[in-house]
Amino acid sequence: MRRLLLIPALVAIVLWAAPCLGQSPSQLGPLCTTETTPADQMIAACSKIIALKVFSGEKLATIYFWRAVGWNKKGNYPQVIADATEAIRLKPSVAIYNLRGSAYYDKGEYDIAIADFDDALRIGPPSGIIFHNRGNAWRAKGDFTRAIADYDAAIKADPKSAFSYQNRGISKQALGELDGALTDTNEAIRIDPSLPQPLINRAVIWRAKGDIDRAISDATEAIRLAKAKAPANIMTPPGSVLISAYTQRGLAHEARGDAEHAKQDYAAALEGRASDAGSKSNQATAMVRLALLKEADAAPRKAAAAPPAAEASPSPKPATSAPAAATATPPAARAQAAATGRRVALVIGNGSYAHVTALPNPTNDARAIAKNLRDIGFAVTEGINLDRNDMQTTIHEFLREAAQSQIAVVYYAGHGVQIDGRNYLVPVDIEFKAGGRITDAMVDMDTILAGLDDQIRTNIVILDACRNNPMGPQVATAGPSRGIEAGSGLAAPASLGAGSTLGAGTLIAFATAPGKVALDGEGANSPFSAALSRHIGTPGLEVQQMLTRVRAEVVAATRGKQVPWSNSSLLGEVYLAEK
Questions:
Q1: Range 197-202 average pLDDT
Q2: Which residues does UniProt assign to the signal peptide (predicted)?
């Protein structure tokens, strides 16, 4: 349960009968304004009442409110916002501001959601439900101190609010306070043992502590409860609880080394209908993890069918510096890896492009960063000048290793593009052909992020790539830059808190600002990677402070032509090189 619904006195208004052809408001009213009415019937009844044009002001606001509730049941948040806005125009109320703010929350527009919750608290009286929902928005923005303060206020107003205890526990977990998180989650379960959501959150805590058996047990009970009854509140998106429960149990099974049960859970998560940001994020994770496990099953058969080494493709193959023991660790020990601090990295450098502008430095950059990371204790999976098949294989191998890690770093140097708001990494065998689907020849960055999405891992993603769109007519004319075509750049992530990596945090660093070109440089390394290489191994240097130093050096070296940029949902200080 992420948010709560407030039903004020205004929605209990009796709808008087009025002359009309067909059904009257008195006949349609109960269908429109009864909480348990199915969504489609509720929307249809409310729409008919609105069409009769017999109500105005507060009464009409009530009808728009209930139609918005119907849209909310269907997960149609733009329609929720449209109807709630009309209700606010007619007669503002705490309930309507709460409903619209919750819809903005589910769309990932947290600042607007907070503004609506502020308005609800302003017109008052103060409500624990509004404090709870505003706390959710602060939590999604990564401001866990403010989130906890709002949950404190919600609990003070309603000491039996299981969901406020649950979400305060989530916020404490995000700050690394696992014992405090467990205490709050246990209290939520004590208050209402029929709720599946606190059990899902406790499963995450157990997995973070390395207790996989308890994680699986809690997720299993959450699935049973979710199937036994409908969500306790109509603000819960349909299917979101089961999607989350199956995904978390799948991650626990995978941590244990039980691939078969993990695959079953991921497949079950994908059967649900995701509507809110959290369930969509869970399904994205389930999809990627399921594909990785299926690929691992097929790997031995592929290996058996491979041609002799002398006939193999000359494309350079990925190399890994991970010690042999890392790949031979028994499942029971691997289940503890995240709790004991294992750190892994993926480093790819693509420069030898056959059909677009070649880049001289990415291979040098990748080798330098890979060495830096090895020197500070990372198990590094390294790939140089990879075609699409090799890129996918290398990335998937890394994602399987990352499932048992505490910190995962991804570094990519080479061409990168944005298409329709999504970022893609470009293999060396890319070739643009008229009529072809260009994205099929590249690697979707969102796939990597979904594979890393987990509430117990910190992810650092560093892209020393262009910020250009290859779809124009002048392909490969950018010269010695990290770009295929001068133009619009890589898409900045709109939000890192919309349901993804809420427990550990993610930082994405770009070599240059949106809409600009990342230079390849005149020396052996790009300006960005040269600066990064100088600072990434500095003991005791916090990662965001490190990027600030890198930014200053790059700006100075390029005379202001290139300004590195980052987006972060990190929840505290992160050190790549220990103090």
A1: 93
A2: 1-17
Cα 562 from chain centroid? Answer: 28
Tokens coding 59: 């009464």
Is 407 contained in some domain?
yes
Residue 553 lies inside a defined structural domain of this protein: yes
CB 489 within 8 A of CB 444: no
Q: Which residue has the higher pLDDT, 457 or 269?
A: 269
Residue 156 placed within a domain: no
**Residue ranges making up the domain that contains 207:** 193-305
Segments in 229-380 forming alpha helices (H): 240-256, 259-271, 277-305, 324-328, 331-334, 337-340, 362-375
pLDDT digits (tens, 9 = 90+) for 148-177: 999 999 999 999 999 999 999 988 988 878
Would residue 183 count as lying in a domain?
A: no
pLDDT tens column, 287-326 = 988 988 887 777 654 444 433 333 333 333 344 333 333 3
Burial of 314 (0-12, 13-18, 19+ CB in 10 A): exposed
Q: What is the pLDDT of residue 234?
A: 52
Residue 247: per-residue pLDDT: 94
In the chain, the amino acid numbered 242 is L
In a shared domain, residues 6 and 73:
yes
Whether residue 59 is found in the same domain as residue 103: yes
Cα(322)–Cα(301) distance, rounded to whole angstroms? 24
Distance CA 86, CA 103 (A): 14
